[in-house]
């Protein structure tokens, strides 16, 4: 910033570094001591660090446009009354031209030198009340209106230096200053010299007064007044009367008289309403809203501008000689202003109000600035006000006006009630024309500053305008003001006198008149206010300036965020102009920036909470976290641990950066350096360190990360201050979350716990409470890290977040989170474990911890979690019961260990039903619930599905023979129960089918049990022809399964029987096929029947003599095929659809498909092995085909077997079909 004086920049920075501790109070006369003229009190507190120059003023704020200072005078020193006054009980005025200011209530007027450097300056006191008693304040109380006036020594060359609606003026050669005030009784009281009545009693001072009774109407009061010295004063009344009052005669002697009535009061029936009709036909209240003084035209002659609320703009030329007073123009501008607005703001036609006016230039009476307002209601029913500045050019000859340009204020939209705002224009007081036109609009609680190029031409309305707003605290009210050519003075009810200085054009970026650019484009509105707030908002305990922006101001989100990042970078990288290059220490330098940054975040919260995206807020908070963490980290390693410091210095050296450079200009590198520090200390060189060293490192991490990042920043700022949801995330992972940091902290947790358990001692000065807090903080850190990473990956990289292998953070969490809570439970921190797991929704750990709490105590806690988490908690709990109860017995989910699942929470039955439906892997438990619910058919189906050999890859498949037999028997009983409880006496087909399938599987189990018993007594031998073939391993695999009581499929069991060397096994194979009428698919059954008959024939070669007519039946009977067929007919296997040996079927190789071989011969690990098995099977087909007269031999054997078994069937030898005899 370019300074306006000769002080160096570092002096300015020094001025604003301190914090004022002065005690500001609202004006209260009961606290003010009696004083005399000689009383000069020194400043009590040393506040020189806030003072600019040697005037004892305090800098409140500044930007590229203006500087606001608090002058040393404290107004509370000017009262001696003991009654408590209201804020509205004061009137104040400042006259920079004569260098004086006054404050008055209804009793006394206090005047002091404006330029006094004292906190309690000398003052003049003038009584305003003729009575000796102090007048009490009431709601309708208004202090008398007072004016400064010069003495009567003005000459012809006198030229006014001040234009104001309430102030007086002082000529350059005047040595005395008078005062005029107006009583409640409509009297004008004039004192020629302030000093002549200073501190006199009311009776004595009254003798010095010159009084004029205006004789106003009963309901008429004086509303406003201005000094037009040397001519006199102009007053307006509440009825619209305007009078010119002279104070002296032509000889300069005091002589108060009404020289001219410039506007008449409202008369007749409507006088009490004071209404008039403007040229637009709209009825408006015709109040005098503005009295402004124009240039002095000659000795005792000057122009006066009068503006009414109905839009009348009247110009009078007045003189000490009343006969020379005349009206120069009277123009109504209401319709012109309304027409200029109605196209853009249609509601202007019904809401336009004229509020104030002001001449733009000192010597030009034709250009005026008109302040007006329009209003409308938004969608929520709130009235929104727009304030319009219209530049009006007056043509006195044509008695007309032209709207030259129109501008709407953007920074203020509140109502103006109860008082109208006031305009001040800098150019109206300037002797020399300036390229910058500065306009102040003074509201009760804000000041709006507008600056533009002062060149009035056709491009005037197109030139860029700069607008800014100065707000004050809600309890601050402006009770007086005064204006110079580049200075605005304000008196408020708390802090005394404020001075707003406009900075020179060179520091504003204003170009010369010949330049094509009016205002510097780099002056940023948002950044200016942010900068003021963060550097000045807390410089004084009671700074009257409110640095927050108005609620209804319209700003672009891009502009807001860009400026926020500009300011945050200035603080983060130490590039801001108010940040000192160096301080006593790096810690102090960083602490100062942290304080400023905290102000920035507070400003964002109260001004842009819903205007800045969550990701941008997180980005801003992240910088603050880095600063805080770095500050604490450097402090700890510097003050407490030399070993940590040496590691840190080594890391800095390896990255070619100094600590000073890091802290002041390159804090963005701290996260990676800090991560490297943790990696070197914990991951690489931690296992052999001492317990005290580990304890110190735990404290460092908890202090830097848990306290400074998670507690002070994430919790207090992200969640409490900005109220962000934990699912509102940035574009990148939080700076403190990465695989290295998570691994380091996780390892530190377990290594530290292991060291404590191993040594069975505590570190130096570490209590049990402290150790518990250490572990609790570490676990909270880990939970927050992993939770944030899960949320971030879920939002930005869903594929990775769901893939544990692809996201090492997920893998690390899954492997350790249960162990974290084991540590908490071991430390007897079960309550804390429940709180953490509940907060983060780690229901798996939650139920583990609950299981360690006594049942009587935890019962209500369970109910709480059922209510809070509902089915999610229930399913996790049920899964835990099933998975962990079986551990105690070596069997997963045995019913004897599941009582809690079914009986502890009877109210959660619907959750249990939903759980079993959603988790089919727990079907081995589901059937219990179904039986309890009397759903016997469903229970039977569930039991059957987990015991069937064709269950495929279902992980619930019961493979143990005994278990399958138990489950199938229960399934059978459940199916029978379903039949018994049926409403109909008839058994349905579905029930029959279910029972049949169950029985088939039980028969298969019986077959395997039979083989098991025979294998156990070594009563089973494999056919020699399979030894040494690829089927040998297949046979051995089946034997191994039978021995281990592992269930095998029916097809494997049948084929196993065909590989034995006795005929009984073949018949048993056929019985198994007969038992599996529904269990085996038709194609599989057909293949197995052909396999049995084929291998039965090949078990022993046929003799050719069998087909001779003279052959002996004994030879046929000795063949294995006959033995099997004889038993086939005896036990009537044909009733089970077991086909006879068809010579065409048993040699049909098409039944042996590749898919079937792959499905059955699973012992073949390679294609070569599978090909070998297929080759062995093909040899069987070929061997069968090589038997001569095969069909005749089979037929002969069939006939004999049927005959010897009782000839029960008629055999159709063409298709080997049977007809059963009746």
UniProtKB/TrEMBL annotation:
Keywords: Nucleus, Transport. GO terms for cellular component: chromosome, telomeric region; cytosol; nuclear pore outer ring. Its main location: nucleus. Signal peptide: none annotated. It is found in: Nucleus. Belongs to the nucleoporin Nup133 family. This is Nucleoporin Nup133/Nup155-like N-terminal domain-containing protein. It comes from Henningerozyma blattae (strain ATCC 34711 / CBS 6284 / DSM 70876 / NBRC 10599 / NRRL Y-10934 / UCD 77-7). The gene is TBLA0E00880.
